[in-house]
Amino acid sequence: MEILLHFIFFMSGSCLASFIECMAFQISHSCFRMRSRCAECGHVLAWYDLIPVFSYLILRGRCRSCGSRISTVHPVSEIACGLYCAALYRHSGLTAVLAGRVLLMSVLVYAAFYDMYTMEIPDVCLVLQIMIFFVFEQRDCTQTAARVIPAAAAALYVSAAAMLFYVFRKQSGIGFGDIKLYFVCGLYLTFQQVMTLIAVSGLLGVVYVLASGKKKIPFGPCIAAAFLVLILYV
Ligand SMILES: [Zn+2]
Fold this sequence. Notes:
By secondary structure, the protein is mainly α. 69% of the residues lie in helices and 0% in strands. The protein has helices spanning 2-29, 54-58, 73-92, 96-118, 123-137, 144-169, 176-186, 191-212, 220-231. Residues 38, 40-41, 43, 63, 65-66, 68 line the site of zinc ion.
C-alpha cells in the first residue's frame, strides 16, 4: 500500500509539472489552446503522447509527426516533480503540511518555467508564496517579525552582491525578480538556511551557465530548485 501511495504521488507530481509547464508556456506566449501541440509542426498531441515521462521514453524524445527533438526539460521536470511529491509524502504523510508544500512546489515550478520563457518572475507567484506561508507555515503572526529578518538579510546580501558585480563588470548579474524571490523564500528559512540557499542556488547557476553555454540565464529555476530541496529538511 505504501509503495502504491508513493507511486501515486510520483505520477501526480509528474502530471502537475507537465500541466504547469504547459500553462506557463501558454500564458507567457499569450497563445491559449485547448489541445497540446508540437511546437515545431503544430501536430495535435493525442492523450497517449501526453503521459508524463513514459510518452517521452516511448517516442525516444522526438515528435511522432515531424521527428523534431522534444526538449529534455520536459522529462527532467516531470521526474523531478514526481520524486519531489513522493518525498513530500514520505516526509509529511497525508497532512495539511503536504498540501501546503505541493502548492508551494506548483507556484515555484510555474515561476521557474515562466522565468525560462520570459526572463521574468511574475509578482503573482511571490504573492501566492507569501499567502501559502501564512496559511500553512506561520499561523502565529507574533513570530512574523523573526521570519522577516532572514528574508531581508537574503535580499540585502544578494542586492549588495549584484551591485558589486555591476560596478566591476558593468552588467547586471541578477534581476530584481530574483531578489524578490530570495526575500519570499527567506520567510520560510532561518538565517543559516538562507545562507545555504544563496550558496546552493549560486552553485546551480554556475552549473547552468557551464551546461548551457549561455552568458545570461534565467536564475529563478536555480533559486526555486535549491529552496524546494532545502525546505524538505526544515
Ligand atoms: Zn512535430
